[in-house]
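Q: A reviewer asked whether we had any structural model of the full assembly, not just the individual parts. We don't, so I'm hoping you can provide one. Inputs are below.
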Amino acid sequence: MTNSETSSNNIKKWAVITMSVISFLGFLDATYLATEHFLGRIPKCSIIEGCGAVTTSQYATIGSIPIALLGSFFYLSIFILTIIYLDTKKESYIILASRIPIAGFFTSLYLVYLQIFILKAICLYCMGSAICSTLLFLLGIYIIKNNGNKILKIK
Amino acid sequence: MEEEPIIHSDNEEKMIPQNQEQQLTKRERKLLKKQQKLENLALKQKKQSQKRGLLWFFVSLLIVASVLGISWLSKYETNQGSLPLIDSISIDDHTKGLANAKNVLVEYSDFQCPACKQYNTLLKRASDEFGDKTQIVYRHFPLKSIHKNADLAARASEAASVQGKFWEMHDMLFDNQESWSTEGNPRNTFNIYAERMGIDIEQFKKDIDSNEVKDRVNKDYVSGINIGIAGTPTFFLNGKQINTPRSYDELRDILQ
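A: Here is a predicted structure for the entire assembly that you could use as a starting point for your response.
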């Protein structure tokens, strides 16, 4: 463990723990949607929700892989990285955990756009996931900004 | 190698001169201290690795338990209560199958609901297999707040019903759900469907906006609201709400 790799006090523990909790919630949400997909359950339409219009649409899968499953791995990877960081205090892990949500955020933006403008239906669980990825993105930016150049220099 | 701990016997000690003895003792003390330090470090490392092992054990447990819990919940989730059907079957209702069948399955449905489209396929199979002992009843429950074309689609089916083509229009609407659902105004599309079915189009155009047709759709919708249903499709078997079957096998089990 080199000095450059060990944690500086600049990385706020609350930000990492919050990141860990949110990524776990996102993992639960995405895993639920993926499970529903694999069980072949037909989601009902309700007065408040756009039901199966979203989860059964052509945009819900890439090939035969449901996007929810990819989301599940996305959140799980962030969750594990934050736990590794809390355990080892190696900065490289939290940097990675802070950078992954950048891709997640833009993917979520696209998926929300699809729901509102293309499918014209809202899936509550999908919106929950979008909120999680947005919060992770903001926390990631906060961590990166707080550590400034130091974080960017570490490879 | 000089700094390694040396264990001396009593005889050896006696042979060592005074100044060397002092030096050795000092060195021994130093070595002992170092050894203790190493032991402490090893103990600390052992504790740390135990702590780490415990942490990852709980993290793995949390992940596995979450996945299993979600699978279990999804499998056994019951998404409705047991609401009673208030309005009994009337001559006004759209029915399929035997009139005095053993099973009467009432479905509150929405033509723009993707789940209802999927259930329509299951119900068609059920109707073919259990038509001799099951009556299927269709009731409108257009979710106007999320499906902007649902009400007009329900009226299109009622306008077709005026000319005795309810089930034909019903199937046509579900089969082509994707195409008319996203249209700003699907009237022309519905007119084309009606024409294809050999419906008198002028009459159809009048009926779709008539108060009778609007009231007929509304009658079903209000009955659904009175029951307290909040989504589609919602099924009632012999007057009692049932959990929405998740597959054809489940539906078959219910109807057998």
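A: Points you may want to mention in the reply: The first helix of chain A runs from residue 13 to 39. Chain A touches chain B through 30 residues (CB under 8 Å).
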